[in-house]
């Protein structure tokens, strides 16, 4: 029989399932971030005890592996002094006369729309270690650090 008439399995046409990518570098977290990671892991573990379809179980297991890894590698960032930009600080900066405030957090708790930016973001990397009044070269130009407070 010609292979043209052979029925291919449905599996051959499915997108391959990959593991969730683990961000490179240290997994620095704030106390809030550590709580979020642990809560996410606990929620997924609870879902695994429920009856799930095979496909759903695979998805939940994949997510659980990611969060287990993140919990195992989490490093609680030192409590910042507020003297310089660091993980766990709220920073007000000015660019072109416009002030913005962001809270610097770990990768997994980053929510740019809520003003929480991960320490790996290019702008934050440029600001880390800077003090009030300092100007740093960020993506898109110079930014001035206006205020720093412990979040």
From TrEMBL:
Transcription elongation factor GreA/GreB C-terminal domain segment(s): 82-149
Organism, scientific name: Sphingomonas swuensis
Keyword RNA-binding: no
Record-given protein name: Transcription elongation factor GreA
Pfam family for this entry, one: GreA_GreB
Entry's Gene Ontology molecular function annotations: translation elongation factor activity
Superkingdom field: Bacteria
Keywords, comma-separated and alphabetical: Elongation factor, Protein biosynthesis
Endpoints of the signal sequence: none
InterPro entries: GreA/GreB_C_sf (IPR036953), Tscrpt_elong_fac_GreA/B_C (IPR001437)
Keyword Protein biosynthesis: yes
Compositional bias annotation for Basic and acidic residues: 1-18
Organism placement in taxonomy: Bacteria, Pseudomonadati, Pseudomonadota, Alphaproteobacteria, Sphingomonadales
Region Disordered, residue ranges: 1-25
């Amino acid at each position: 029989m010609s292979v043209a008439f052979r029925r291919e399995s449905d599996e051959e046409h499915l997108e391959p399932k990959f593991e969730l990518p683990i961000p490179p570098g240290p997994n620095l977290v704030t106390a809030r971030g550590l709580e979020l990671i642990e809560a996410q892991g606990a929620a997924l573990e609870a879902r695994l005890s429920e009856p799930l379809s095979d496909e759903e179980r695979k998805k939940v297991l994949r997510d659980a592996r990611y969060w287990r890894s993140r919990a195992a590698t989490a490093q609680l960032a030192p409590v910042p002094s507020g003297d310089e930009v660091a993980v766990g600080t709220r920073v007000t900066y000015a660019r072109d006369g416009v002030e913005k405030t962001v809270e610097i957090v770990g990768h997994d708790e980053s929510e740019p729309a809520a003003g929480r930016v991960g320490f790996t973001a290019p702008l934050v990397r440029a600001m880390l270690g800077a003090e009030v009044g300092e100007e740093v070269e960020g993506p898109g130009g110079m930014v001035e650090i206006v205020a720093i407070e412990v979040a």
